[in-house]
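Example S7 (structure tokens).
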């Protein structure tokens, strides 16, 4: 909070972002990002900026695919068509270049898949597709443990 107050006082005094950052021992890009996220140089206020930062950092966050059911259905459809998460993420970027709500990284898609695979309730993921896809990739599990398997081939 004290750093944000220093940023606010520096902006009111007409100091540059770089000089404010140097006095705080922070990178100029960090200070600039905080100012831009919280109203810009003319509207920046320390208290609302601090509250907004705490709100953004609040955990746990719901998965983007849980918040946007239409997007979840679209991702599930592509997975059922055997698209990889990387292909889906790239396709979404190219299909919806101006839509800030749609981009989903392949990591988020993988995370949604593996939450389901690790036994989370289905209502915590975006649908049955995740379970279906993992089972498809891994196939049936062998009941034979590694110690019961034959040893390495002798040459």
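Recovered sequence:
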């Amino acid at each position: 909070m004290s750093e944000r107050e220093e940023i606010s006082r520096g902006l009111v005094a007409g100091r540059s972002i770089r000089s404010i950052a140097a006095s705080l021992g922070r990178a100029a890009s960090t200070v600039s990002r905080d100012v831009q996220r919280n109203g810009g140089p003319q509207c920046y206020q320390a208290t609302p900026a601090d509250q907004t930062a705490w709100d953004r950092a609040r955990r746990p966050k719901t998965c983007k695919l849980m918040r946007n059911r239409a997007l979840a259905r679209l991702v599930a459809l592509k997975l059922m068509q055997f698209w990889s998460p990387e292909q889906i993420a790239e396709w979404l970027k190219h299909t919806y270049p101006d839509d800030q709500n749609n981009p989903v990284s392949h990591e988020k898609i993988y995370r949604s898949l593996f939450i389901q695979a690790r036994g989370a309730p289905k209502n915590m993921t975006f649908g049955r597709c995740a379970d279906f896809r993992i089972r498809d990739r891994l196939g049936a599990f062998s009941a034979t443990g590694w110690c019961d398997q034959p040893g390495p081939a002798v040459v």
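Notes on this example. The chain is about 60% helix and 0% strand.
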